[in-house]
Each structure stands twice: as C-alpha cells, then as structure tokens.
Amino acid sequence: MSRPHCPRCCRPLGHCLCALIPRLSSRTRVLILQHPSEVRHALNTARLAALGLSNAELRVGEEFEDLPQWLAQPGYRACLLFPGEGAQSLQAFAGQADERPALLVVPDGTWRKARKLLHLNPVLATLPRVTLVAGLCSRYRLRKAPMPGALSTIEALVAALEVLEAPARYEALLKPFDALIEGQIAAMGEQTFRRNHHPG
C-alpha cells in the first residue's frame, strides 16, 4: 500500500514541502512544458516552481495542440529558455526597447526529452531563444551535471526571473528545493553521501 501524499506538492505527507513554498509575483508569465516522464520524478522542481509563482502555469504532455494560442497571449513577448544556435543572452532580451513583459517558455525534462518536446512542437522553433549567463552552478549535490551550467528547472527559473524582474529577488523559490536535497542526503546518511557525492 502506497504512502499518502500531499495533493498539492505531491510529496509523502510526512515530507510535505508546502510550508516552504512561497507565493511570488512577477510581470513575467512563465509557461513550463513538462515531459510526462518528469511527473513522478522525486524532485519534480517544475511543480515546486509553478506552485511558488503566481504568474506561472505547468502543462504536462509531449504534444501541445493549443500551444499557439498560449503563445499568442496579448501584451506579452514570448521567448524560449533553451540553449542552441542563435540563442541570445537573457540580459540582451531583457534590455530590448520593448515594454511588454516576457512570456518565458521553459521545457522541463532531461536534455533528450526537452529536445523531443521542441521537435514535437515546431511552433517553439519560431520563438527567440534565450540563455542564462555562463558559469552558474547547480545546488543539486546528488547528481553530476551533464554539462557545465546545467541547472534544475527551478534553479534556471530563479536565475531567469532575477534578470527579467531585476531588482526583485526570487531566492525564496529555492527553499523547498534545498529542503528536498537535505532530506535526500539525510535519508541516505551523511557517510554514504560523502563517499558517493562529495569527494575530497
């Protein structure tokens, strides 16, 4: 019999993170496109981010037929947070002489699954691509990043919003993420963590 889970954060009731999830506002509209394989992931930081941002929406799927309608929301200028050829820095995008707030589209999944989302939803290729500043380091100490600068979805969103919404800060969004990591380390034991994930 499975343990009861919190219907909001989807964590086991004994490890509910809801008390740590803030409710932060932003002019930027955030649209997270989550690959279905991420829904049951132990971290699922995209869900934590969507719960913590009042102007965010989380959609789960592989093909989003009504995506063109979502992207055409009046009063916003859409962009895709994903590296690639022709991508510009988020700072450059934010600095353009356009008063409209951003509609930030964020694919959520492994790199392979995220690329699949882009392939299955060709309208995403029509959006300007934006990237975060180089050299950011993930706080997720339990997994080796697949490449330099690779961040979890919630970390990438915090970094992006602190550019788009400057001088507002979004660090509070990482509180449940940090608690989640500390809980996983505690569950495996400090010695196991140090042996497997913290050389030196």
From TrEMBL:
Question: What residue ranges are annotated as transmembrane?
Answer: none
UniProt keyword annotations, A-Z: S-adenosyl-L-methionine, Transferase, tRNA processing
| GO terms assigned for molecular function | tRNA-uridine aminocarboxypropyltransferase activity
Q: Where is the DTW domain?
A: 2-189
- Protein EC: 2.5.1.25
Q: What general EC class does the enzyme of this chain belong to? A: transferase
Superkingdom of the organism of origin: Bacteria
Keyword Repeat assigned: no
> Which protein family is it in?
Belongs to the TDD superfamily. DTWD2 family.
What protein name does the entry list? tRNA-uridine aminocarboxypropyltransferase
Source organism (scientific name) = Pseudomonas zhanjiangensis
Q: Please spell out the taxonomic lineage of the organism that makes this protein.
A: Bacteria, Pseudomonadati, Pseudomonadota, Gammaproteobacteria, Pseudomonadales
